[in-house]
Design a protein that fits this description.
2 domains; D-Maltodextrin-Binding Protein, domain 2; 21 helices; globular; alpha/beta; 4-stranded mixed beta sheet; 5-stranded mixed beta sheet
Length: about 425
């Protein structure tokens, strides 16, 4: 397990910042070290280090030691294990659907008094919607750092071979599948479609049909609903009629960047990486996700929020300062410019000093912003088995990807297995 968690400490980075930026008189002051955990360094590392460099110019007496995990679920498990041993990080950035489990176990601090101490939340750029992403169980468990949605990545060179310009790309799934069939008929055709694999990515089909995972009272899993079955049948069409290759998401990203996939549906979180992998290979465009139900269709947001874990007053204050800065207008601007995520601070959007010019000069980032009106929060399953439930859903979806089960079988098995993992009183 130790090898999977990839812990590391940016000592050289921190020492360089302190040595180059701190006046001699300041060097003598006491140094506070905080441990900050986050997941997905392949996505977040550049943004975290850019934010940290700007922060340490303001707070030279605070040094950050990073700990990373490959994904959100392993990040949650790490913090849960460390909490039992009393060795958890001072600050952790968790997936928005994992705040609930840490809050219900009393591992994190309620940020409400910290925010009140700073003054008006709205004046700091925290809108009610953004604050809501970090709320669970009646407390402000976290502050949203980054928000993502599923978007459509397009290889325009391939689309133009079938006479389609980006503005003519269909925004409904039946039109997309028809495009895929036309692409498949091209000489030396690339794979027409790739849809990122996993529970969160697939939820865009369920929510796009107007469905949801659980009933409003959280007593029933709803995969056997009409929307659940319709979403699973659509997924099969994407796999089969879209001639989707059986690749992992990282392998598919490499294939798309090399021009071997024409249309990819994936998180906006990977946008910066996609731009770099495509390079000059072909002309890239992005657009919104197709949504089935024009009135009720929604998209779950992904992303992460910072949660304050420190109990020691000195470390707690230092960790709060970094969390506050990372979610400020300046920190948010650095995050957006180094990833593909949607900003979580309204000042960063509204104030021309931060992101207004960036979005004008980077139209590929606009698709996720256009979808914000139909987004809903990333659902957190009740009880202690949230991570296992997500994995159970992903495992069953993989059976469809590998043609080992029909949509009807996957829906039935998923319904039975997830129901077993839910709390008995739900």
């Amino acid at each position: 397990m130790k090898s999977m968690l990839q812990p590391f400490t940016r000592r050289a980075f921190s020492n360089l910042a302190l040595g180059a930026l701190v006046a001699p008189a300041v060097k003598a002051q006491s140094l506070t070290e905080i441990t900050v955990h986050y997941s997905q360094p392949h996505v977040f590392r550049e943004s975290k280090e850019a934010v940290a460099a700007a922060f340490m110019r303001r707070e030279p007496g605070i040094r950050i030691n990073w700990v990373t995990t490959p994904n959100y679920d392993e990040g949650t498990q790490l913090i849960l294990r460390q909490a039992v041993a009393g060795t958890q990080a001072d600050l952790t950035y968790q997936g928005l659907n994992r705040l609930r489990v840490l809050a219900e176990r009393g591992i994190c601090q309620d940020l409400t008094p910290f925010l009140h101490r700073e003054g008006s939340a709205a004046e700091q750029g925290y809108s009610p919607t953004i604050l809501g992403l970090g709320q669970t169980g009646g407390m402000q468990a976290g502050l949203a750092y980054a928000v993502s949605t599923m978007i459509t990545y397009l290889n325009l060179d391939v689309l133009r071979r079938i006479g389609v310009e980006p503005e003519a790309v269909s925004t409904n799934w039946y039109g997309i599948i028809e495009l895929a069939e036309r692409i498949a008929r091209l000489p030396n055709a690339p794979d027409p479609i790739y849809y990122d694999i996993g529970e969160w990515a697939w939820s865009a089909l369920l929510y796009g049909h107007g469905g949801q995972y659980m009933s409003g009272d959280e007593r029933r899993f709803l995969m056997e609903s009409p929307q659940g079955l319709a979403a699973m049948r659509l997924y099969q069409r994407i796999l089969r009629d879209g001639r989707m290759p059986n690749l992992t998401t990282p392998a598919a990203q490499q294939a798309f960047g090399a021009g071997r996939i024409a249309i990819r549906f994936g998180s906006t979180a990977f946008l910066r990486n996609v731009i770099q992998s495509v390079g000059q290979n072909f002309q890239l465009a992005t657009t919104i996700m197709p949504v089935i139900d024009a009135e009720r269709g929604r998209l779950q947001v992904g992303g992460s929020a910072g949660m304050l874990l420190a109990r020691d007053p000195v470390k707690q204050e230092a960790a709060w300062k970094f969390l506050r800065f990372s979610t400020s207008a300046e920190g948010t601007a650095l995050m957006v410019q180094n990833t593909g995520y949607v900003p979580c601070n309204q000042l960063a959007v509204d104030d021309p000093r931060w992101l207004a010019e960036f979005y004008r000069g980077n139209p590929l980032f606009a698709a996720a912003m256009r979808q914000l009106p139909i987004t809903v929060a990333w659902y957190a399953f009740p009880g202690a088995n949230g991570v296992r439930i997500s994995q159970t859903i992903s495992d069953n979806l993989q059976r469809l990807v590998e043609s080992r089960a029909t949509p009807e079988q996957v829906v039935q098995d998923m319904q039975r297995e997830v129901t077993r993992l839910l709390p008995r009183n739900t």
